[in-house]
Amino acid sequence: MAVDAVRVAVVGLGWWSDVLADAVQRTAQLEIVSCYSRTASKREAFARKYGCEAVEQYDDVLGDKRVEAIINTTPNQAHFETTAAAARAGKHTFLDKPIAHTLADAQAITHVCLERGVVLSVGYQRRREGHVRWVKQQIDAGQFGQLVQAEGNISRDRAGVFDLSSWRYQAAGMPGGVMLQIGIHYTDILAYLMGPITAVSAHAAQLVLPGENADVAALLLEHANGALSTLAASYASASEYYLMNIYGKEATAYYSLHEGLRFLTRGASAPSPVPCEPIDTLVEELNEFAACVRGEAQPEVDGDQATASLAVIHAGIQSVRERRRVEVAELLDI
């Protein structure tokens, strides 16, 4: 452990907290000193697994001078309460996406962290994957020319692991269903590569899973530069699948989970494979957070960016509900 490691408490001990805690073990930049959950068995099991202190009250975490920052994986609807309390206690927060379940909460989280002068970093690890970073570098270098279109697909099979009692599958905690839970990863990537998203036209359906949320969605995204993107998100597919195709006037990039990344330039007869080194995306974003806490970096995805990302999904939700094209500016004070 580095001498200057950022001392953190992990709050909200669901399955993703263990994923992030495992990533903390792979970096020397953070140290888990405590954990909190309202459920005693969860916090005690986490404390045994990661060698930290199990704390019975969240206020005790906030009052602990050892704790510099919070890794927050609480349910979406608890993000404002827990992050605002941390900010008022002078604690920085790494907050898993989405920033909140409502835009009002997202804006309030951003405001209180700014007001209190603490770091807010929102976890969008998929934009850090090797193929996405490579494509971004080529776009920035002008290799694609004018960007004109993109396609994305993020699909998973949830039939065997679906838990109707989980907040992740309920409209109150996960409005928009599959759009917010996993689709937001790829709306983030498409905005990162193609530029800001200004309008959304969406359709959604509930075909396989029980409950009240859509398990299939299709979105048409309009970008500020005039380009168009399409995104499919599904919990009703036979297996896990990811696709990302980026089309420019001078080049095209094709990525799929099973075939990797290929690149086709104008005049070439066939695309060429692009080897991409694997990136430990979770470690990368946690290291960045530690650097931000130490004043050595700025969050790649801060509160304003995360709020804009959430607004795209809420535009999609409104589009489904009202059966019309929705401009993102309708939902934000911009």
How much strand? Answer: 25-35%
Helix content: 25-40%
Number of helices: 9
Mean of all residue-level pLDDT scores: 95
Query: How do the SSEs run, as a string of H and E?
Result: EHEHEHEHEHEHEHEEEEEEEHHE
Query: What spatial form do the alpha-carbon principal axes imply?
Result: globular
Q: Could you tell me how far the N terminus lies from the C terminus, measured between alpha carbons in angstroms?
A: 44 Å
Radius of gyration: 20 Å
- Number of extended strands: 15
Biggest sheet statistics: 9 strands, mixed
| CATH fold descriptor of the largest domain | Dihydrodipicolinate Reductase, domain 2
Q: Going across the major beta sheet, what is the strand order?
A: 14-13-12-11-7-10-9-8-15
CATH superfamily of the largest domain: Dihydrodipicolinate Reductase, domain 2
What is the count of distinct domains? Answer: 2
CATH class (first level) name of the largest domain: Alpha Beta
Identify the CATH architecture of the largest domain: 2-Layer Sandwich
Give me the secondary-structure category: alpha/beta
Poorly predicted parts: none
